[in-house]
């Protein structure tokens, strides 16, 4: 009997998706399941009347690791966003 999958991945969020992607590139066959009706986990976005809505709250991607930055840029495009919090002190 031949096996259908090398990995069963529970959760299609960043972790499960990245693992499946990398494993697949290494020739492994993955089955990814999720209890939600979409991929992306907590970073999932949907369009509501032409507006991009961060369904589970806003997410900002940040890393100082060039290898990580180069990797994610092979997969998705990013909006240029600068976090500029303002604090009043005394
Ligand atoms: C409001 C909010 C804002 C955030 N902002 C940032 C940010 O700005 N920058 C940042 O780096 N991080 C942020 N985070 C954290 C970020 O969401 C997580 O680091 C990242 O999304 C985690 O990815 P993950 O794949 O580990 O988990 P998740 O994205 O949670 O994905 C897990 C998936 O597994 C599924 N799942 C779980 N249990 C089961 C089960 N038993 N059966 C089937 N499916 C299951 C879930 O439905 C989910 O889709 C934020 C989190 C929240 C909630």
Fold blueprint:
Blueprint: E1 7-10, H1 14-25, E2 30-33, E3 45-48, E4 51-54, H2 66-73
Parallel strand pairs: 1-2
Antiparallel strand pairs: 3-4
The structure holds flavin-adenine dinucleotide (FAD).
Flavin-adenine dinucleotide (FAD) binds near residues 13, 15, 57 and 60.
Please provide a written account of the structure.
The protein contains two helices and four strands; from the N terminus they run βαβββα. The chain has 90 residues and is an alpha+beta fold. It has one domain. It is extended, with a radius of gyration of 17 Å. The mean pLDDT is 93. Bound molecules: flavin-adenine dinucleotide. Flavin-adenine dinucleotide (FAD) binds next to helix 1. The site of flavin-adenine dinucleotide has 18 residues, from helix 1.
Write a brief caption for the model.
The protein is α+β, with helices and mostly antiparallel strands and 90 residues long.
Essential attributes:
90 residues, alpha+beta, two-stranded parallel ribbon, two-stranded antiparallel ribbon, 2 helices, 18% strand, extended, binds flavin-adenine dinucleotide
Elements, N to C (H/E): EHEEEH
Ligand set: flavin-adenine dinucleotide
Strand order of the largest sheet: 1-2
Q: Beta fraction of the residues?
A: 15-25%
Mean pLDDT: 93
> Termini, distance in Å?
72 Å
Helix content: 10-25%
Biggest sheet descriptor: 2 strands, parallel
The coarse overall form would be extended
